[in-house]
Amino acid sequence: MTDHDILPPAGRPGPNVPLARPADRAPERGHQPARAGYGSPFPHGGNGSGGAAERSVPSMNGTDGTGVTDRLTALVERVRRDPGAVGWLFPAVSRRVGRGPGPSGDPEGVLGPTFQDGARAAVVAALRDTVGPERFAEEVEALYRFGDAEEKRAVLRSLPLLGRGGDADRLAAGLIADALRGNDPRLIAAALGTPAAAALDDHAWRHGVLKCLFSDVPLAAVHGLAERADAELGRMAAGYAAEREAAGREVPADARRLIALSPHPADSPGTDDGTGAGPSAPPTTGQEA
Amino acid sequence: MRIFDPHVHMTSRTTDDYRRMYEAGVRALVEPAFWLGQPRTNPGSFHDYFDGLVGWERFRASRYGIRHHCAIALNPKEANDPRCTEVLRTLPRYLAKDGVVAVGEVGFDALTAEEEKAFRHQLALAAEHGLPVLVHTPHRDKAAGTRRTLELVAESGLPPERVLVDHLNETTVDLVDGSGCTLGFSIYPDTKMDPVRMVRILQERGLERVVVNSAADWGHSDPLSTAHTGEQMLRAGFTEDDVDRVLWRNPVEFFARSGRLLLEEAVPDTGGAFAGNSVLRGRHAEPDPPATEPRED
Ligand SMILES: [Zn+2]
């Protein structure tokens, strides 16, 4: 996956994106009382190392007249100049740049990155280009650790920016596992909806996929499902279906698809390609598992 | 009746409460960070709690049709424990988040020097982040604690309309009224206000700058006490529009000063003279919070 896949398409915020905050508005001035002396809020104060990176962000090309691109450009430049500020700039991305569905059309970000996920990925990319690899990894971990659900989802969607290999894989697998321990469908979907989920071992990945059936996450959200589904996953899905039937409950279509998708010892795999049988509705009122 | 409960600790409540609150008209709320009943012993314990306020609790509320916002702070009681005060260093990460509409609850519990230091520090954070402040007034020595609170607010330079002084009663209402701060009343069995006394205060003082909350938590409390107060207002001759003002427009107006309310698709407008929407458009410019280097803009 290239950066381009996870960064917002140029000038495509969609008509629903509220322009949260005009970038040219003056910040509030006036009262700046002295702090009582608890020290700097962030471990990495501004180090003035920004501004060196020349690498352009794909989504920055061109303007669309809405100002969204300009605001994102300004934000990315700000992070390049002052990477230590990312801890409070990252949470504020939606207010500063905008929010709305991404190319998937899903405003909850279950079926694909939202517009603000893409904008946050641009911030993460700027950070990567500005600080050393060790500090980049630390900061990505902190952005996730201190993120709300929107921010955590954006970090998960940005994981391919870490690259591959030992340390990157360990960090990605750790964050994905954390998301899969929770019950928020947006995070479960983002955890499995990224190529970075390749870092997850098979056991954890299968449990994540099965958890989708319990969490209102359509399997269409899972990246590379057809390629990775194996007989063990099919066995687990069949067990789930049997349990539902025994209880007199309906077996969801996604469960049947999972069974069909996994290679059976007895017959050939089903014809479903696992990319989703039509538009699945984003989760609405599913209950606690 | 549409209700915005500006102070309720949903972390301590059940999904049945969410259902009953929705049925009673609650469509939005603010959950301020507070004490959990069991003292915390380290900053990580606060971080997990804050994560719940901006994460799981917001999600849980949304499943019951209620917009969940929160206020983030180190509470007065735990400001006295040196093992906990380190959390003040990470507050800015949380204060930058969407849906975080105030710094709170801050204020006094036992009126100690440590409490005052944390209170001052967090008033300064509110100024830096352009956020309103939700102030808890103490159970013990309430009038003295409220007086000292108003002195610190005045010293902070924060505009009084951005400060909500909460848990008021008959003995503290005049004191706070004179300061220009927003007046909060908790309708909470046994220890705070009840609907009948609340209506008496509204009759005597008027509706302006008054918000009413349930402050429901893990104690003997009632998340529907806002609705009960609305009903009591109607019985006493107030109009539907008066009720809407106290239970919806006043708290929306107060927290809209954060520019962070998440009400866009929420809530039917009851058609009163005042549309909730117009408040949302009145967002103030968002400041660049704690600069890690001199600001360039
Ligand atoms: Zn409280």
Care to describe what's here?
The complex is a heterodimer of chains A (289) and B (297). The two termini of chain A are 33 Å apart. Chain A has helices spanning 3-6, 68-81, 86-89, 93-96, 115-130, 133-145, 149-158, 166-181, 185-192, 202-214, 225-228, 231-246, 253-261. Chain A is 45% helix and 0% strand. Chain A is elongated. Chain A has a domain at 3-162. Chain A has 289 residues and is mostly helical. Chain B has 297 residues and is an alpha/beta fold. Chain B has one domain (3-266): TIM Barrel, CATH 3.20.20.140. Helix content of chain B is 39%, strand content 13%. Chain B has eleven helices and eight strands. In chain B, helix 8 (195-205) crosses helix 9 and helix 9 packs across helix 10. The longest helix of chain B is centred in the middle third of the chain and has 17 residues, at 113-129. The interface between A and B is large, with 47 and 52 residues. The complex binds zinc ion (ZN).
Supply the key terms.
heterodimer, A: 289 residues, mainly alpha, elongated, disordered C terminus, B: alpha/beta, TIM Barrel, 8-stranded parallel β-sheet, 39% helix, 13% strand, binds zinc ion
Structural class of chain A: mainly alpha
Low-pLDDT sequence parts of chain A: 1-5, 8-65, 267-289
- Cα gyration radius of chain A (Å): 21 Å
CATH homologous superfamily of chain B? Metal-dependent hydrolases
Find the biggest chain interface. Answer: A-B, 47 and 52 residues
User: How many structural units, i.e. domains of chain B?
Assistant: 1
Q: How many H/I helices of chain A?
A: 13
Number of strands of chain A: 0
Rg from alpha-carbon coordinates of chain B? 18 Å
CATH class call of chain B: Alpha Beta
- Which outline of chain A best applies? elongated
Assembly type of the shown chains? Answer: heterodimer
Indicate the structural class of chain B: alpha/beta
Under the CATH scheme, the architecture of chain B is: Alpha-Beta Barrel
Bound molecules: zinc ion
